[in-house]
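Reposting from the mailing list since nobody answered there.

I have sequence plus structure tokens for a pair of proteins and want to know whether others read the tokens the same way I do. The first protein:
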Amino acid sequence: MNLLGPELVRDFVSLIQSAEKDPAISVVVFRSADPEYFIPHVDVTRVSEYRAEAARLTGEPSIGLLFRYLSASRLISIAEIRGRVRGAGSEFVLACDMRFAERETAVFSQIEAAFGLIPGAGGVQHLARLLGRGRALEVLLGAEDYDAETAERYGWINRSLPASELADFVSKLAHRIARFPVAGGAVIKDRVNAVTLASVEEFRHDSDLFGERVRDETAQLQMRKAFERGFQTREAELALAPLLASLNR
């Protein structure tokens, strides 16, 4: 189900390193082979392991800084989203330069508040800028699921498209961008980032807060309750929002 663990982070780091070295590559599209899950969230049993893999690229054990690296990279990144995108999965697609989602299947959520945590990989920084204060707080505090049409209306994604149109739309856009001069695209992205991308220090601070909170007794208790209800199993996470709402009942 594509939990964000050390293997996925390791492959992501290798991909970015390889793509950045290849001058023929200017656009990267991320999609999942699993129609029900894009990236549901981090594997909370392997936090130290995936953080260590992230450090291979950024020098710091933080997926927030790893994702920010992608946002600042010369590569143009596009997320083609089907299925569930929650927690760090949402933060990953937010780090991409553009996001397009399948209208019928895509589900978005920032689940951290249910555990007494803060999103540690850029969710606060991106959502506050994209959604505005009120909607960002709704999303971050409510830990609720949002469908693709609502995510589009809120500004979480660029567009939601029917399943029959998504792949073709993203492919045409990626190839169109790739045909234009790379240097010009890099400058445009750099200047947009100057206006919209939070500093490394802000991302580092959120990452540190997540690392501190995830070891807290309250967070650990909430996680134990969640695991008792099937957290991180494929079937239970198909409808995660009700599971999270039940933790304190």
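The second protein, same order (residues first, tokens after):
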Amino acid sequence: MIQDIETIDEFLAHRTDDVEEAVRTAAATEIMPRFRQLAAHEIDEKSGPHDLVTDADRKAEEFLTEALVKLLPGSVVVGEEAVHANPATYEAIKGEAPVWIVDPVDGTRQFVHGDPGFCTLVALAHRGVLLASWTYAPARDQLAVAVRGRGALLDGEPLRAGSPAPGRDLEVATSHPDYTTDDQKRALLGLWTDGVSPRACGSAGLEYLAVARGELDATAFSWEAAWDHAAGILLVEEAGGAHLTLAGEPFRITGGNALPFTAARDAATARRVLGLLSGGA
């Protein structure tokens, strides 16, 4: 098992291209051949009609689980579908081993409907600290990579989130009301005010990418499943952005966050969105 951060840094210095290849191969072999080709028996519901899983999700996660552990011996994988099958596996995020956090198809609903707005998310963390992430939108052939302290890239070009233009309404992607508690609904209502233009979010991973690109000013999410947020949180950070929970603290992938939380293009925008959420709470 890898015991020290220097060993993981060495891995990140030399093997990020191998992780990229694994992500691209998973998409090419297990996801894209099923895009707009799914049969009814390849789609199942999990918690309800808006929470779907497909053979693409399952097969891509199986592929990535094998490939990533082989690349980094001693590491473990926390994948959305494996956690659905055995919730106890989620606890590995809090463990001592390096952990890969995987969402094989983020935006499964879009994938099922033939919409290209989905992506594969992979993040590497150790002792609760995010170290690297890969966000791949295969239908658009876009790959964003972030490594802690080394910046963020989209298709090899540096990503900078920048800051919103003064005087323009903030564009904020928010959780759908179906996925919020009454208290969270009240908090999110704080965004329905002058100077803010809220809308329902799509794929969380692609919303984070939009923030990192400066195309979206902020997100406001009410759930904390690490596979939805880990890759994007680091991507936004390394592009110069910030994230805060309702308690005024950075989002923690290990859980226990005060929700909703925001990720934004810069710290000032994060504080502004947090103030609106706190006012609604």
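Reply #1 (J.P.):
I read it the same way you do. The helical segments are 5-31, 55-71, 80-85, 108-112, 182-189, 204-213, 226-238, 267-280.
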